[in-house]
């Protein structure tokens, strides 16, 4: 049996993402639990930060006019007091309020204290070393925009405003269904010939959580159309379904046909290497990613289809890929008409450019080749490989 049609990698992803509608649900989150979440609203500052004039240095609050002409050879003497007025300064610490009457702070290292008198060896201008009200954030200013992925520094800003909770986009839920007669649950028993521990489901589970989703890992399903259908039906309360295995065109590869019988099979057969057997569909408005059972092909399908689908569902802004430039240590080949993902290890030089060392250009079942790899060199469909010594872009693996 052959694939009815092989769709280009870019077109397959375009078809799939076009069919997906983003979630609309929001929820409240404490700021402590909001790292990595997506803001569902603009956040407007309710107060000024700082809300008082504060000293930016340890030293003495002064009237700037009292320091005119001060220098290393012509110090100015001021009286030490609590209130600042002409000829009088007051001791301040970093972050402490600047007393009324003062408009500048002279740094401690530019002074010498003599009992109740302060000798000043530098001239300052008005507002020097003084943080004005609202200098950091002004009341009414938008500090977080809707759709922004919250980072620890953003959360610190919210805390500085006294904000304890923020409305965030609901995390998309994803059901992960591993299939295959050969699969055995981890830690259950010793493997027999023809058996392997289930790993694709675990890998997909961890990546989806890393990318911002909530996962539900289904128990292993045998290569039986009715059992596969039951597993899908029980997972339709989630926002997306990922099925591992059973996607090719063999006698026991039932997954694409089951998806088609329950909904719409958008794509089966993708011009991507490894990963040609990948299939994509929609069931009851829920996107379904059918990743090949070979682990390397599976991870390519996760990166190319599951990640952008998850981000669209969860209204998660696209992030630029983490890439480095490197010089190829060896020639790599590609398959004409297929977007090729070649695993490479990066050699970090003492000086100069990175070197990219190909680990495997074939062997979609060799999972360890991904673990040993730092990234992929992605070769477009219209390019016949890359030459030794050529500079390439390496997409780093999370």
Structure description:
The model has no long low-confidence stretch (mean pLDDT 92). With 398 residues, this protein is α/β, with parallel strands linked by helices. The radius of gyration is 31 Å and the shape is elongated. A hairpin with a 6-residue loop joins strand 24 and strand 25. The chain contains 7 helices and 27 strands. The strands form 7 sheets. The protein has a 6-stranded mixed sheet, with no helix packed on it. Helix 1 runs parallel beside helix 6, helix 3 packs parallel to helix 6 and helix 4 packs across helix 5 (255-262).
Task: Write a brief structural summary.
The chain is α/β, with parallel strands linked by helices and 398 residues long.
């Amino acid at each position: 049996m052959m694939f009815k049609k092989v769709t280009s990698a870019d077109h397959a992803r375009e078809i799939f993402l076009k069919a997906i509608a983003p979630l609309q649900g929001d929820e409240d989150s404490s700021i402590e639990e909001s790292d990595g979440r997506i803001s569902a609203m603009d956040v407007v500052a309710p107060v000024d930060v700082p809300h008082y004039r504060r000293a930016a240095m340890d030293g003495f609050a002064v009237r700037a006019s009292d320091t005119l002409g001060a220098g290393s050879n012509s110090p100015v003497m001021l009286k030490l007091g609590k209130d600042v007025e002409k000829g009088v300064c007051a001791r301040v610490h970093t972050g402490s309020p600047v007393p009324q009457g003062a408009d500048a702070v002279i740094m401690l290292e530019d002074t010498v204290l003599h009992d109740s008198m302060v000798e000043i060896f530098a001239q300052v201008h008005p507002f020097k070393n003084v943080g004005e009200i609202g200098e950091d954030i002004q009341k009414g200013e938008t500090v977080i925009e809707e759709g922004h992925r919250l980072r620890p520094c953003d959360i610190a800003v919210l805390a500085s405003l006294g904000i304890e909770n923020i409305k965030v986009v609901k995390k998309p839920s994803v059901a992960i269904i591993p299939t295959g007669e050969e699969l055995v649950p981890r830690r259950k028993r010793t493997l027999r010939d023809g058996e392997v521990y289930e790993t694709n489901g675990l890998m997909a589970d961890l990546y989806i959580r890393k990318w911002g989703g909530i996962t539900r890992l289904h128990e292993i399903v045998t290569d039986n159309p009715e059992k596969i259908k039951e597993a899908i039906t029980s997972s339709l309360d989630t926002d997306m379904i990922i099925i591992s295995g059973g996607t090719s065109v063999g006698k026991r590869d039932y997954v694409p046909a089951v998806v088609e019988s329950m909904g719409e099979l958008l794509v089966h057969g993708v011009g991507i290497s490894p990963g040609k057997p990948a299939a994509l569909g929609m069931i009851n408005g829920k996107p379904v990613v059918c990743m090949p059972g070979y682990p390397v092909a599976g991870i390519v399908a996760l990166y190319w289809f599951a990640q952008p689908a998850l981000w669209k569902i969860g209204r998660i802004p696209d992030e630029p890929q983490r890439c480095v430039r490197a010089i190829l240590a060896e020639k790599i080949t590609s398959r004409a008409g297929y977007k090729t993902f070649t695993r490479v290890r990066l050699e970090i030089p003492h000086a100069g450019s990175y070197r990219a060392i190909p680990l495997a250009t074939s062997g979609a079942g060799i999972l360890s080749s991904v673990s040993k790899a730092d990234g992929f060199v992605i070769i477009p469909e219209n390019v016949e490989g890359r030459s030794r010594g050529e500079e390439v872009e390496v997409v780093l693996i999370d």
